[in-house]
Please model this.
Amino acid sequence: MSDELEDLYQDIILDHHRKPRNRGQMESPTSVGEGFNPLCGDELTVFLKMDGDKVADVKFVGQGCAISQSSASLMTQRIKGKTISEVRTAIADIKELLVSEKEPPIAVQERVGDAIALKGVRKFPARVKCATLAWHALETALGGSGKVSTE
Ligand code: ZN
Model:
């Protein structure tokens, strides 16, 4: 990866950390997913408001490192207004982007949008759990409400 590309990724993550999108409590969510990453101390709660098959609204609150919080912000931006099956694809894409050993297919890289910025985390295995936490919490919320820990 070129240095310029890494700088760009860094800018996106910092931007979402400074100005998180869809951050805050939600009144009467349809479901809630909580995620905890004891390794880094990151905590996230994801609120979903479903309208039939669609994510009518999504919000998050939490605390932790810049990667975990900006990943949550990127996640909300990625899935708002999407159908459940699109959200499941988005979760699978992020896992492929962050966890797979191989370079993710172009289709995946295109679908993830700004969340491509998280790709830089692949080089730092300890931080992968920070980046995937929001998506685990989202997955939990999709299946009803519950809590998930990365350990
Ligand atoms: Zn973290």
Notes: The chain has one domain: 3-149.
